[in-house]
Amino acid sequence: MLIRWHGHACFEFSNGSTTIVIDPHDGRSLGIKPPVASADVVLITHEHYDHNKPRVIKGEHVDFLGRNGTFDAKGITVTGFPSFHDYSEGSERGFNTIYKFIMDDVSICHVGDLGCIPPEDIIEQIKGVDFLFIPVGEVYTMDLSDIKTFIELVNPRIVVPMHYLVGGLSFRLGPLDNFLNIIPNDAVDFVGNEIDVTASEMSDTRECWVFDN
């Protein structure tokens, strides 16, 4: 499976026959490069401008915005879990959907702009995933103490930080280094912009993979 980062919270996943893009932005509104990708499926975790621009993605894709429950997405079974974008049950920034799916025997969980630790029943359903994609910029999402707790609860094999301050970004987020300070140095791997992943090659020891544009 190919995983490619398109900046901010936008990631592309492809097994050669189906391509899923999550949380596309238009680049220009954020001050960063727009995604360059073609997809069969676009998953959108919530209706905010830095996550909900499927029009920039090429291809005849089917789009799902905040879709909760289990559904078919061009042959890939996806489950959406309801969550909040803040610490006030959505009263400040609304609702958010956590997406989980399996591609090429690798389980993926992208939590969008998760604003607080979800309840235990949701934790149980995402616990032990191979990849956990989590926002670490703090300003509009969980703070670092809750991020650390959430990671321990989910216990993924690989943590991927997203939604943090990068050069040119037009709004305030915390820098990546703040998050990396709570991760052991020997667990951090800078993997570049894209990587091919196979289930058999993945480590049993938790790692943090940092993507770079």
CATH class: Alpha Beta
> What's the N-to-C terminus distance?
19 Å
> How many separate helices?
3
- In N-to-C order, the SSE pattern is EEEEEEEEEHEHEHEEE
Biggest sheet record: 8 strands, mixed
User: What characteristic shape results from the CA principal axes?
Assistant: globular
Q: Which residues sit in consecutive blocks of at least 5 with pLDDT less than 50?
A: none
Structural domain tally: 1
CATH superfamily: Ribonuclease Z/Hydroxyacylglutathione hydrolase-like
CATH fold topology: Metallo-beta-lactamase, Chain A
List the strand order in the largest sheet. 6-7-8-9-10-11-14-12
The CATH architecture would be 4-Layer Sandwich
Radius of gyration: 16 Å
Q: In percent terms, what proportion of residues is strand? A: 25-35%
Strand elements, count? 14
Structure classification: mainly beta
Helix content: 10-25%
**What is the residue-mean pLDDT, rounded to a whole number?**
95
